[in-house]
Specification:
With 444 residues, the protein is of the alpha/beta class. The protein is 25% helix and 32% strand. It has ten helices and 21 strands. The chain has helices at residues 73-76, 86-103, 163-176, 219-229, 283-297, 314-320, 333-345, 358-364, 383-392, 404-414; strands spanning 5-13, 19-23, 26-30, 38-47, 50-59, 126-134, 137-143, 150-152, 191-198, 205-211, 233-240, 252-258, 262-266, 269-273, 304-308, 325-330, 351-355, 371-374, 396-401, 418-426, 436-443. Helix 2 (86-103) runs parallel beside helix 10 (404-414), helix 3 (163-176) runs antiparallel to helix 4 and helix 8 packs parallel to helix 9.
Amino acid sequence: MSQTIIKGICSDISSEGLGIVKANWMVIMVNGLLLGEEADIQIDYKRAGVFYGHIKKLYNLSKDRIKLECPVASACGGCTFQNATYEYELAFKKKKVEDALKRIGGLDVKINEIIGMENPSNYRNKIQVPFGKENHHVVYGFYKANTHKIIPIKKCAIEDELASPILMDIASLMDSMHIEPYHEDSRNGTIRHVLIRTSHTTREVMVVLITNAKTFPSRNNFVKALTSKHPEIKSVVQNINLRDTNVILGEKEEVLFGKPFISDSLLGIEFHISSKSFFQVNPVQCEKLYQKALEFANLNKDDEVLDAYAGVATIGAICAKHVKKVTSVELVHEAVMNAKDNIKRNNISNMEVIEADCTKYLLENDKHFDVVIMDPPRKGSTPEFLNALKKSKPSKIVYISCEPSTLARDLKILSDTYQINNVSCVDMFPRSFHIETIVLLVKR
């Protein structure tokens, strides 16, 4: 299989940004192949009846192909569109949303022009990387697709520029202090992953060391050396994960330096962000997203708003000054604590944060809301929540989604009671195949 070479033309792009080649009886997915390009493709493996391969030789290069900004983009697989113009990427993302809404939701709706980013690089305020060993030295990077093999990387093209030198010094200190990285197969070693969060506005940095032990040799000296080299680090947290699992973060944590959070702000509201808090990874585009949500919601002083799947209640806090009351509902305890702190810090008196499952809360509380703003995880909402929402009959729903397929599925459930009045896309994740969509639904 690995020696099979197929020559073909890219006739379409998959929802994950892979080039689709149909040659003879085969359907082949190829990373980095642009629409209309012809290539010799080496077949790597087959899954669920579809072949996957990589480019051996390119012919008829697309006018949209550009030089790779990141030297390991093709091996890493995290940035699907590092080799394409930003215009090509945005066009793909808009079509992806249109196709999902039509194919899955049966919805033929017009989408406004996609809101792109002025500079689609170094935008991520959160990065988490595994650590390992290569040639007797500590390395870090990203796992190669479908493997536990680390692709070493010194600088990621989409991470905040503050993160790269910190990661380099962590690896260097681990080498000099003989702190072993965790090995997936033997389950030996200490440092499993490192998570770095950066603040766009204050430029504060949080470093989270995810470990396979409750403590580790030279811990205090390690933290002291790291924070001396990088005064921008305001928080170092040890997260303890003793489980044999692919889940990165464990349950127990200890603050080793500074405070248990960093501060950032969106549209004039200040937020505290802990290691486990959900906070949008692209603050520049997040402000554009929330401005669009406010525009769609068209709030007034008499409105009562439900902020569902609230996270640290970012959108709820931003809405509060425009309405009578905001009720934010979130299940993750740490996010709820951050949200309550955020309300207090910003002197918001007309907002309540409830720790509960959104579906359970809506089913158990016979309460009417004028506007519901919902931002569920990638898996979308649930039929139970959506049907409860229809029964409570809010005048407007603003649905924010990071996954077009689950958005389309959920909109189909709502479509008998609500009509779609507006759809926009905001590119929160440049160079990846992901796209954020915001929809205004109005009660029929």
